[in-house]
Design brief:
The chain has helices at 12-17, 71-86, 97-111, 117-131, 136-147, 156-169, 174-190, 200-209, 214-233, 265-274, 280-289, 293-298, 330-336, 351-361, 370-383, 386-393, 397-403, 410-416; strands spanning 31-35, 38-47, 50-59, 62-68, 304-305, 310-313, 324-327, 430-433, 438-441. The chain is of the alpha+beta class and 447 residues long. Helix 7 (174-190) packs across helix 9, helix 11 (280-289) runs antiparallel to helix 13 and helix 16 (386-393) crosses helix 17 (397-403).
């Protein structure tokens, strides 16, 4: 009995009388998480002093449950499930919580790069295969050291156009510009991609496939090297790495491949004595100073100093890109002092064709570089010094010694440098047909 005299309801009848059933009522969720119209309940259960939280929801007609030891973790999962249910993406809940955390983190990291997760994974897998056992990050770091200064990834055809335009602006000769256009045009037709992708093996294979002589291959390689050097100066190639073209070696020419042919003093006398005044500079300077054709085309009369007895070739004019002083011999002075010396020594490059046409009219064969070869051969016979002739001719002493020594005698050299203008020399005339490249002499018997 209680203090008021009432009995405590301790039996079944009392419980029934109080309105309680014998069976305990089922407990409801301790909380719910909603997203739109989707609701995910969370139930709390206790067992042996442990509290667990259970998510209960349906997917594709099946009831699913997930248990968590922490209410906040259960809430996060419930929120995720509710969002997927609302969006009709219940199948995503097949991922485990830590997998979804990794997925969410990956998407977050890629957001600033605007790269889809699938694309990033594909890129990494490919890089991992290429890297082998090396660290991908280490390889990328090394790559950046080499290629970070690059201005952009340029393609070969556009670099060729830039090079030709730059050289034209710099005042390069028409013949050199024509050579660059021809050689590099063929190169660009074969390699139209980025210059970074061209290897030394590619260049070597291209040169060999042209089926040219060794000397011609070397000449074309020079143009390709100019292109790659220009690309490096424009930051299209790494500044501190040798270019692919630099790794290709010139073909070594056989000693017997260098043929030195010269005019005799009699042939040179016949040529000069038949030459009209406008061809005398080419013939006389070529024969008695040994200046190359390309150098002569760039030469101004202001560089021919008869008082000092020298012809000055500036670095920009010389093939070797170094200043050179060529002595004016006594007989060369005699040929030059009567000439009008204004402007360019060679008025236009087409005059060289007239000189060879004159030789054909006189039935004199004109070998390649014959005037220069003649000068060097006769000059070394007189001065007896390969070093001195090398300085005057802009060549190496080894080449002079190997190919020109003892080709001509001292007596022949004295006759060569003794060729002087004939009486009436400056009245010479001839008719030149530029279409057929033939010369008709006004006095065929003149010598």
């Amino acid at each position: 009995m209680n203090g008021g005299g009432d009995k405590l309801a301790t039996n079944a009848a009392a419980r029934k009388a109080s309105g309680r059933s014998k069976r305990k009522q089922k407990a409801g969720p301790c909380t719910t998480v909603k997203f739109g119209s989707a609701v995910v309940p969370i139930y709390e259960s206790r067992s042996q002093g442990r509290v667990r939280y259970c998510l209960s929801y349906y997917r594709e007609g099946k009831r699913l449950r997930q248990f968590f030891g922490d209410l906040e973790a259960a809430r996060r999962e419930a929120r995720f499930v509710a969002q997927r249910i609302q969006g009709g993406l219940q199948h995503v809940t097949d991922l485990k919580p830590h997998e979804r955390d990794s997925y969410a983190k990956a998407v977050e990291l890629l957001a600033e790069l605007d790269v889809p997760l699938v694309a990033a994974v594909e890129d990494y897998v490919q890089a991992r295969k290429l890297a082998g056992q090396e660290s991908v990050a280490a390889i990328v770091a090394d790559y950046r050291k080499l290629f970070k200064p690059l201005a952009r990834h340029a393609k070969i055809p556009e670099i060729v156009e830039e090079l030709v335009a730059a050289r034209k602006q710099d005042g390069a000769s028409k013949s050199w510009l024509g050579t660059l256009r021809t050689v590099l045009g063929r190169f660009a037709a074969s390699f139209q991609g980025e210059i970074l992708g061209v290897t030394s093996a590619d260049i070597d294979g291209w040169l060999r496939g042209l089926d040219l002589s060794n000397s011609s291959r070397n000449s074309m390689l020079i143009c390709v090297k100019v292109l790659f050097s220009f690309a490096r100066s424009r930051n299209y190639l790494p500044a501190d790495q040798p270019t692919a073209a630099e790794q290709v070696k010139k073909v070594k020419l056989r000693q017997d491949a260098v043929v030195v042919e010269v005019f005799t003093p009699e042939e040179m006398t016949k040529l000069l004595h038949a030459a009209p005044i406008h061809l005398v500079p080419i013939l006389a300077i070529g024969a008695f100073a040994g200046i190359r054709t390309a150098e002569m085309n760039r030469l101004e009369w202001s560089a021919v100093d008869l008082e000092r007895g020298i012809i000055e070739l500036r670095a920009a004019q010389a093939k070797t890109a170094s200043r050179r002083l060529v002595p004016i011999t006594d007989n060369l002075r005699a040929w030059l002092e009567e000439l009008p010396r204004r402007g360019k020594v060679v008025a236009h490059p087409g005059l060289h064709k007239e000189t060879t046409a004159l030789a054909r009219a006189l039935e004199i064969r004109w070998p390649r570089n014959v005037l220069r070869h003649s000068f060097i051969s006769y000059r070394i016979a007189i001065v007896k010094s390969a070093d001195q002739v090398a300085l005057e001719a802009g060549n190496s002493p080894d080449i002079i010694f190997k190919h020109y020594r003892e080709l001509r005698t001292e007596e022949q050299a004295e006759a060569w440098f003794g060729i002087l203008p004939k009486p009436g020399q400056w009245e010479n005339e001839f008719n030149y047909d530029w279409r057929t490249r033939t010369v008709t002499l006004s006095d065929p018997s003149a010598d």
